[in-house]
């Protein structure tokens, strides 16, 4: 009601646990989008959200460059309709043409990533967690977001096929981070073989448990200097 010229807003949780009793919801996001139409950047933690509220923000704040929505809890759908949050995030990338940074959350299917691949042509940074149905989602991102520089993926069902679909683009990126996905050692080795100027690191977050084929964390980046020399024992460079 009062901050009509607000351009940057960060709403952080008092308690970051999934089951925290926070009071922030889609009601607040709708109020912000209706009253602060000059908004350029928002980081918004909440306990529940609706597609309607996100769609409203996409129409009311078309100048958004950063949209980071964190619905606390895994795979949470639109709490009114029970539908995935696909249409909300689709509206953000479709209507906010200057968007350069996007963080997704909630229940998202491959459809959401089809929207991101088709309309996220300006995206440079993308963060994804607990989302998608298959490798097709990652393929949409890597084949559609031509300006993407930083990609962070956590706990998604993406494997070698999705990773290898981005071979044409990895040299243009700053880094790729994938943890808790379905990658294999063979898939990561193939990336390292085909792209020798990429540093491909495999990180074991539980050093006491030796990994055989599965990959815990993949961290991949381009470097003029080549691989780093200060590698701890739980990091393997391919």
TrEMBL record:
- What's one GO BP annotation on this UniProt entry? SCF-dependent proteasomal ubiquitin-dependent protein catabolic process
Recorded hits in Gene3D superfamilies, A to Z, give:
Ribonuclease Inhibitor (3.80.10.10)
Record's GO cellular component terms: SCF ubiquitin ligase complex
- Annotated InterPro entries: Leu-rich_rpt_Cys-con_subtyp (IPR006553), LRR_dom_sf (IPR032675)
Q: Which PANTHER family does the protein's record reference?
A: F-BOX PROTEIN FBX14, F-BOX/TPR REPEAT PROTEIN POF3
The identity of this protein, by name, is: Transport inhibitor response 1 domain-containing protein
Highest classification ranks of the organism: Eukaryota, Viridiplantae, Streptophyta, Embryophyta, Tracheophyta
């Amino acid at each position: 009601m009062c901050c009509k010229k607000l351009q940057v807003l960060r709403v952080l949780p008092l308690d970051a646990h999934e089951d925290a009793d926070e009071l922030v919801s889609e009601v607040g996001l709708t109020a912000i989008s209706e009253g602060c139409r000059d908004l350029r950047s928002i980081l918004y933690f909440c306990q529940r959200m609706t597609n309607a509220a996100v769609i409203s923000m996409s129409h009311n704040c078309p100048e958004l460059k950063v949209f980071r929505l964190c619905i606390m809890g895994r795979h949470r759908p639109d709490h009114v309709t029970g539908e995935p949050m696909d249409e909300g995030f689709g509206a953000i990338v479709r209507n906010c043409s200057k968007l350069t940074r996007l963080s997704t959350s909630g229940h998202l299917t491959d459809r959401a990533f089809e929207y991101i691949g088709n309309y996220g042509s300006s995206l440079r940074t993308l963060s994804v967690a607990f989302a998608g149905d298959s490798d097709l989602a990652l393929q949409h991102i890597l084949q559609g977001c031509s300006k993407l520089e930083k990609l962070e993926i956590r706990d998604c069902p993406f494997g070698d096929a999705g990773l290898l679909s981005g071979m044409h683009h990895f040299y243009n990126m700053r880094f790729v981070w994938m943890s808790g996905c379905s990658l294999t050692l063979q898939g990561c080795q193939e990336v390292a073989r085909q792209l020798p100027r990429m540093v491909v690191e495999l990180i074991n977050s539980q050093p006491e448990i030796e990994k055989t084929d599965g990959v815990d964390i993949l961290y991949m980046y381009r470097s003029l200097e080549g691989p780093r020399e200060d590698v701890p024992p739980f990091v393997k460079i391919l």
